[in-house]
Specification:
With 79 residues, the protein is an alpha+beta fold. It has 3 helices and 4 strands. Strands 2-3-1-4 form a 4-stranded antiparallel beta sheet, sandwiched between helices.
Length: 79
């Protein structure tokens, strides 16, 4: 299975950029459906969820909403 096929399984997700630390346990809410470790100019990555996160989760984990999009669109935003 190619990377494109793998990400196609998930369809659109609610994507969030990690602002101050990389993708790792405790740095983001549980239940992420997908991640992109190379997203962002600082290289902290992004995580995708099937359901939107709450305002409290965004604040607690210091995340920034990127939007509801598929993985390919996320790659286009990165460039």
């Amino acid at each position: 299975m190619t990377e494109k096929e793998f990400h196609g399984i998930f369809g659109k997700l609610h994507w969030y950029a990690l602002m101050y630390r990389g993708v790792s346990p405790g740095c983001m809410p549980n239940g992420a459906a997908d991640s992109d470790l190379s997203f962002g100019s600082k290289g902290y990555g992004a995580v995708g969820y099937r359901e939107p996160l709450t305002t409290d989760q965004l604040y607690k984990y210091e995340l920034k909403s990127i939007g509801f999009k598929n993985w390919e669109d996320l790659q286009n935003d990165r460039n």
